[in-house]
Design a protein that fits this description.
The protein is of the alpha+beta class. The protein is built from three helices and eight strands; from the N terminus they run H-E-H-E-E-E-E-E-E-H-E. The strands form two sheets. Strands 4, 5, 6, 7 and 8 form a five-stranded antiparallel beta sheet that branches. Strands 1-3-2 form a three-stranded antiparallel beta sheet, covered by helices on one side. The chain starts with 6 loop residues before the first helix and ends with a strand.
Length: 134
Amino acid sequence: MNASTDPIADMLTRIRNASAVRKHNINLPYSKVKFAIAKILSDNGFITKAKVKDAEDGLGKILVLDLFPTNSNPHITEIQRISKPGRRSYTSVANIPTNRRGRGIYIISTSKGMMTGSEAKKAGIGGELICKVL
């Protein structure tokens, strides 16, 4: 296992690379934050399914992402980390960005948990901009 200083950026890079080579599923080390991001991607149709399973050695859990069905193309064309450990990026509800006429989503970490930018606007709360997905 590699020790990444930014596990969210590692997750996004693995998704980006797997989509580029048309790999249908990937395994990641599990965390609640990564699962919350994967659930948002799944709910918005960017990936097919996110599930958690026990590791084969019995230690810990693995997050399994099914990126797209076998007979179709990847749904993610771009995925980019915004807030980084060295430079956090926060936004108020009035400044939550939208992109490409609503085609993509921003994932925001709020006091009520992870949600999309549009959900955060409806809830009237800002937070940390985690990533942009197209």
